[in-house]
């Protein structure tokens, strides 16, 4: 998933900022580096780590991306301010080049994480057994499948064992079943839900209810699709 790239990007960027700040301070060759340079660089790298942890804890993936972009802008302005006041020297030029490389790698990492293939979350109900089996067999091992059913059959147990199918047992209006398919219930069962492609399968009222829960979890609508499948015939 893209979380690994999103985590390394800010760290790379702030390490580059730290190097650029060294170039601006210019402690000098062969001399003991100024304590302010040490402290400033450590603080900047720590800021990168804080951004990583904070962005990862946000429920909305979009909010995390915005936080990282704001940090990039702040770091860029900081470097521009200090380097503009520094006298030109080989050390300053070298530090600026290192910063530029780190910035390019950070931005590439930031954008590349969104472009990577996301894992899938399947949420379904009222499907023909063969249809459900086909949907599960066509997914990779990272897929999480949640299926609401009124009755657990031997075939559902077999699918649960083979594909890790998460069974939500209860009738359509059962409060316990609805809670597990609500925003709070889905976020507990699938903590990385905002980073997944979500496929819905079932009657229209079911998919409408789940879409509302996904919207409250800030899952972008572009990541949610409704599968055209054959529904189970009710007696």
Notes on the protein architecture:
This protein has 235 residues and is α/β, with parallel strands linked by helices. The chain is 60% helix and 10% strand. It contains nine helices and five strands, in the order ααααβαβαβααβαβ. It has helices at residues 3-25, 35-57, 61-85, 90-115, 129-137, 154-163, 175-180, 183-189, 204-216, and strands at residues 120-125, 144-149, 166-169, 197-201, 224-226. A five-stranded parallel sheet has the order 3-2-1-4-5, with helices on both faces. Helix 1 (3-25) packs parallel to helix 3 and helix 5 (129-137) runs parallel beside helix 6. The radius of gyration is 25 Å and the shape is elongated. The model is unreliable at 1-7, 28-32 and 112-116 (pLDDT under 50).
Topology:
Blueprint: H1 3-25, H2 35-57, H3 61-85, H4 90-115, E1 120-125, H5 129-137, E2 144-149, H6 154-163, E3 166-169, H7 175-180, H8 183-189, E4 197-201, H9 204-216, E5 224-226
Parallel strand pairs: 1-2, 1-4, 2-3, 4-5
Helix pairs in contact: 1-2, 1-3, 1-4, 2-3, 3-4, 5-6
